[in-house]
Amino acid sequence: MAGADAAHVAADLRAVTTRGLRLAVAVFAVAAVSAGFALAFRAGLALVVDALGGADTVSMIAAAPWWERLALPAAGGLAAGVLGLVEARQKRSGAGVGYVIEAVVLGRARIPLVRSAVRALAAWIAIATGNSLGREGPLIQAGAAVGEAARRVFRLDDAAARLALAAGVAAGFASAYNAPIAAVLFVVEIVTGVLVLEAAVPIAIASVIATVITRLVVGAAPLYGAHGQGTWRLPELAAFAGLGLLAAPVGVGFLRALARAERAWQRIPTPWRAALGGLACGAVLCALPAASGNGFEPLRGLLDGKIAVVAIGWLVLGKLVATAASVGSGQPGGVFTPTLLIGGCAGAVYALALRAVLGDAATAAPELYALVGFAAALAATTHAPLMATVLACELSGDYGLVLPLLVATALAAGLARRLYVDSVYTAELSRRGVRWRLTLDGRRVFESQLDAVDVV
């Protein structure tokens, strides 16, 4: 009997060891492939920009004649819409960040490989042609798809496969923003909603691996450059708290504008609505080229203090309209960086208003408020204040703003949750009948109308 028990223990130990080794190899492979995909995605966009005579998306659009500013986004939208028809034929599966969240958390969905590839290509075309979209969406989706592939290749069980999916999401985010800690917090605050050691280890390792690979190719500098924004005084925490309260309605207003635009475009069939959305975006670009792309270039100029106050006001309006036209018409892509730009503009305008009332000596530089503003707006739209705080530090290399960032993002997220119960990601789930809320007792699913779906 003792020999039989020992054999069972040895067999169990071998099974656990084999499972652990498979998961470890899978996490490494997922991180490496996700980082490689992100680098290829970025390099492909750079090739298009260079071929059209620009150093970046904004300069490419600015150098184009007016008719090309109209035609490029419209053509990209049409191509993305045609690919959307191909994607929609994969009826047994879904796509999008919301679907990825459901697959990781509930474990009853599968990330479709074919549909994810088609969606990534459509997003690449839409972004490359100047439409106002972020690139984090397709990179996160691709990372999750790589995790799904690892499920098959390494024959992972359901629990291990969910960890591989989460690792893929973290790797995709880390590669998109060169921000490993924020990538971990993105998964913890937005995707899983809870922090457990079993998930934290593979997520953190995947984030590190993807970031190392990315930095070997593109460098280790913060995405928006190193910013020593100067000093701020302790009494200014009240001003930063006010900025957080302001960022909440700004972020919620942005989400509502996107939702209304999506409803307005629904009556037009695909792919024509995506083409018309691109045309509407192009009309904005005719007057304001800085509204093109994901918003990286003008946001960097804002943080460097190189954008005039009048231009900031027009940029907020133009970016809002261009993004609503692009996203609302069904073009695949993210709204992460456009949110950062709108929040950064709001923060800069807020600082200039404070200076007009209190004087220049009473407040820190407007660029500092722009940085805190973009983090607060992001917290308002994602309901993830810790991720937004850390992301702002990693993107700028300025860790002296932790206290202003924490107070602003916490207030922005708290007020935004009261104004608009869903975040940009849970709104997508709610529209499909999946609703949950995070409480001190954990995640509670209130309603679900979806069954497990097969992998395509």
List the helices and strands and how they pair.
Layout: H1 2-51, H2 57-63, H3 66-88, H4 97-106, H5 113-128, H6 136-153, H7 158-177, H8 180-192, H9 197-218, H10 237-265, H11 272-287, H12 296-303, H13 309-328, H14 336-358, H15 366-382, H16 385-396, H17 402-419, H18 426-431, E1 435-439, E2 442-447
Antiparallel strand pairs: 1-2
Helix pairs in contact: 1-6, 1-7, 1-9, 3-5, 3-11, 4-7, 5-6, 6-7, 7-8, 7-9, 8-9, 8-16, 10-13, 10-14, 10-15, 10-17, 11-13, 12-14, 13-14, 14-15, 15-16, 15-17, 16-17
DSSP helical segment count: 18
The total tally of domains equals 2
Q: What would you report as the Rg, rounded to the nearest angstrom?
A: 22 Å
Number of E strands: 2
Query: Strand fraction band?
Result: under 5%
Low-confidence stretches: 448-456
Distance between the termini: 47 Å
User: Which sequence of strands runs across the widest sheet?
Assistant: 1-2
Please give the CATH class of the largest domain: Mainly Alpha
